[in-house]
Structures are given as C-alpha cells and as structure tokens.
Amino acid sequence: MKKIISFTVNGAKQELYLDTRKTLLKMLREDLELMGVHLGCGGGDCGACTVLLNGEPVTSCLVLAVDCEGAEITTVEGVQQNGELHPLQQSMIEKGGIQCGFCTPGMVMNSLALLRENPQPTETEVRQALSGNLCRCTGYAKIVEAVLDVGNAMTNSKEAG
Amino acid sequence: MKAFEHYAPDSVEELLELLKSKPNAKLIAGGTDLLLQMKEGTAQPETVVSLKNVEELGGFSVSKNGYRLGTGMTLRRITRSNELTQNFPGLIYAAGVVASEQIRSLATLGGNICNASPSADMVPPLIALDAVVQLVSSQSQRELPLSEFFKGPGESVLKSGEILHSIFLPQPSGSMIYSKHAPRKYMDLAVVGVAVRLAKKHGKINEARVALGAVGPVPFRAEKTEALLAGQTLTTELMREAGEMAAGECVPIDDIRGSAWYRKRMVKVHVRRNLEALR
Ligand SMILES: Cc1cc2nc3c(=O)[nH]c(=O)nc-3n(C[C@H](O)[C@H](O)[C@H](O)COP(=O)(O)OP(=O)(O)OC[C@H]3O[C@@H](n4cnc5c(N)ncnc54)[C@H](O)[C@@H]3O)c2cc1C
Ligand code: FES
Ligand code: FES
Q: Which of B22, B79, B103 to mutate to test the pocket of ligand 1 (most atoms within 8 A of CB)?
C-alpha cells in the first residue's frame, strides 16, 4: 500500500509517493540517493544510519518514512556550510577519526546533535552520547578526540568573534 | 515485511474511533520494538496506526496530587525535563540508561510499557513510584496499578481497541533508586533491574517498595521484602536479609544474558546496595 508524504530534507521540500513499508533509511538512499546514510545492522544497534529528525538524532532504519510527514530531516550531505566541510567533519579528518568511513556519517550526525545541545562536552559525555555508534576500525579514541577538539574550537571562535 | 495500511490520526478521539473500526490494527509509537518485530516477521499487522501526531499524549501535567505523564513522551524528552528530573531523579536515570541517544529520541514511555518485556527499564521504577495506568477505548475508561498491567512476556491486560493513555504518579514520597545490571555500561538490556523506594519517618521506614525486572515473566513487586522492611530501622543486617528475601521472591529463567542462579545473586546484591544508598 502506498501513501503520499511531504517533508524537508537538507533544506529542500520533497513530496513522494511511498510504500508504507519503506524505512526512512531506504527512502533517503533509494528515492533521494543520499548514500551517506549507511545501512549496517538494520536493527538500531550500530548507528551507521543516524540522521537528524526535527533536530534529534535517530536510527533511520527504525523509522517508517510515512511517519515523517511534515518533518525536517538532515543527513550528512546537509551539514557542509557554503561548500566547505563543517568544522566537525574537518576535525574528524585532522584527528584521524576516519578509517574505512562506514561509521563516519552516523558519528558526525550524532556528535552534531550533542554539540548543538552541549557545545563543550566532557570526554565521558561524548562517549555516552556516542554509545549507540559502533566503529570497527578506529578504536574510538580518535573520534572522541575529534569531537572534543571541535567543541573547544567552536566555543573559542564564538568567544573571539 | 507484509504490506499494511497506515493511518496517522491527530487526536485521541479520532484514534479511538479508528481502532473501533479496525479491531486488528496495531499501534506504532516510536517503532523501536514494533518495527523490529515486523522486520523479523513476528508481528504482521495489516493496519498500523501511528501515535506521532496525537499531541495530547506527548506531554505531562501537574496537579496537587501528582503528575500525569502522556505515554507518547519519548525517553529523550523525559531526560530533558528539569521538572521531572527534580521530582523523579531515579526514573529519569532509568530513561537515560535505555539503549542509545538515537533510540531514546524515538522510544516512548508507552511503548516501553506496552511491549511488556520483562526487562523494560522504565517499569520497575514506575512500579516503585506507585504508578497508575489509565486505559481508554471508545467505550470505556479504567485505571489500575501498573503492577497489575502485565500478564506475561509480551502480554498485558490491554484489550482490542484500548490504548494506554497516561501514567499517573502520586507526589513522590521518600527516595527511589533504580539500578540496572548489565555486562556493558551502555547499549545493553538489563540482566536484572532493581528499583527500591523508601519513605522514612522518625528514622523508621514507613513505606517500602521493591520492584524487580528481568527476573520473572513480568516485572513485579517483591511484597515479602517490602513487608520485611516496613516499620523497621535500616541496619546492615536488615539490608542483607532484604537482599536474600528478594532473591527468594524471583523466578528467573536461564537465557543468553544470564543464568537463573546468577540473576538471583545479582538481585541480592542490588537490593542491598540500593538500600545502602538510601540509608
Ligand atoms: C537497539 C535497541 C536497544 C534497546 N535497548 C533497550 C534498553 O536498554 N532498555 C529497554 O527497556 N528497552 C530497550 N529497547 C526496547 C525499546 O526501545 C523500548 O521498549 C521502547 O521504549 C519502546 O517504545 P516505542 O515507542 O519504540 O514502542 P513501539 O515499538 O512503537 O511499540 C511497542 C509496543 O507497544 C504498543 N504500544 C505503544 N504505545 C502504546 C500505547 N500508548 N497504548 C497501547 N499500546 C501501545 C505497540 O502497539 C507495540 O506493540 C531497545 C531497542 C533497540 C532497538
Ligand atoms: S543500520 Fe540503523 S542502527 Fe544499524
Ligand atoms: S572507520 Fe571503519 S567503522 Fe569506523
């Protein structure tokens, strides 16, 4: 069975005619070709599919697309600013928080939600917030470092400006 | 996944009328339990009715007697409420140890209860706080203590056409602590969940609640342990005895997360520790 639904993705309005079974993850990948949304476990355990739904981080594999009527969705493709990488993305590269890159979009989206709410988190707060994102490569230390570092940098630049 | 029709009513009245005309419809709140079951094929609804647009279920209200929590509140929102954190710190702690930040953005209070898993983290603390559930359908309305809501794993007293509308919590008396025993610090289900509430008067316990999760087919009150504690002064000896009595009241099973023997041991330890923390 199908249903028409409209919502905003990365600032652009969309209207789609979708199978009610389609998850938000599949809709983003298959209908909008946003391949930064990764399918890992499909069951809420790994966080690779994390996007922001009305500003909150969610595992898009556990959301029905038809439940997103009127929602604002942000994927990793929508976080760059004026063609430049977001400071958090830059920091992930500089600190070596990316190896194979599979977990990276989910890590970025969830960290972004954390930093918006808590611009200068402690290491414990970062680890707690990212506990729903698995990484098989980095051992987490460099990812945590990248988030901590950008937290400090963003706050300093705000104070300076 | 089997094909299904999807409705998203925006009021409780509309929702209840819809359920009346579609008696086999399944409610979806956050979907973190239901969608998994649908993916696995253990749930195959033909009609899915979403609670997302029903604003009435999404908040809480305060009266002289207590608090009424809408069952559509997500666990993330619950952890962000200063007022709830001040009044029910043990309950907010429990909400914060469910799954991950991403799941908590979706998972609702009502879903955690209605899924009726013996290990649901919100249930022992709510039982220890004397929570009363309000069930409504297009024809009826009834209230009962949360401790009487469950019938077995995955089963509750909810009838076809009925929803869990809200949870009433009386003004908190005494302090309540929830502890979750799991091998991993985050992202793990409870091997045992132990909530203890004590209210004291003149140094003696005048009200005791001990609610246990994941050590029986449903979460339950350890009533013998509560009776042992009532009217007493909390001594080291009494805390030890209470731990042993609570372990004796559980009927756990062996499963992948822990053996029945281990679960009993952990109940003993956590009841004692929670009492120590409340001394
Ligand atoms: C990766 C992962 C980790 C998890 N970890 C934990 C954990 O640590 N602790 C824990 O307790 N749980 C955990 N869960 C389980 C789950 O997230 C919670 O039980 C959650 O609170 C369910 O809420 P929901 O809104 O997503 O429910 P849904 O899936 O939408 O619904 C669950 C059931 O309740 C029914 N229902 C929902 N709302 C109502 C209502 N108002 N009236 C009547 N029926 C209703 C639905 O029909 C369905 O049968 C985990 C799940 C995942 C995927
Ligand atoms: S793919 Fe969604 S959490 Fe793993
Ligand atoms: S970089 Fe490979 S999974 Fe994280």
A: B103
pLDDT, tens digit, 9 for 90 and up, residues B192-241 = 999 999 999 999 999 999 999 999 999 999 999 999 999 999 999 999 99
Beta strand pairing call for B155-156 and B150-152: antiparallel
Measured CA to CA, the distance from residue B114 to residue B51 in angstroms comes to 13
pLDDT in tens, B119-155: 999 999 999 999 999 999 999 999 999 999 999 999 9
Residue A23 backbone zone (phi > 0: left; psi -120 to 50: alpha; other: beta)? beta
What is the Cβ-side half-sphere exposure of residue A27, based on CA atoms within 13 angstroms? 31
CA angle B44, B49, B50 (to 5 degrees): 115
In order of their start, the domains of chain A are: 2-78 (3.10.20.30), 87-160 (1.10.150.120)
Residue located via tokens 């409780």: B12
d(CA B65, CA B113): 23
Q: Which residues are near ligand 2 (CB < 6 Å)?
A: A 39-42, 44-49, 59, 61
Architecture of domain B175-278: 2-Layer Sandwich (3.30)
Size of interface A-B (CB pairs under 8 A): 87
Residue contact A3–B6, C-beta within 8 A: yes
Pocket test for ligand 3, best of A137, A144, A147 (most atoms within 8 A of CB): A137
Q: How far apart are CA A96 and CA A109, in angstroms?
A: 17
ipTM reported for the complex, 2 dp: 0.95
CATH hierarchy code of domain B5-50: 3.30.43.10
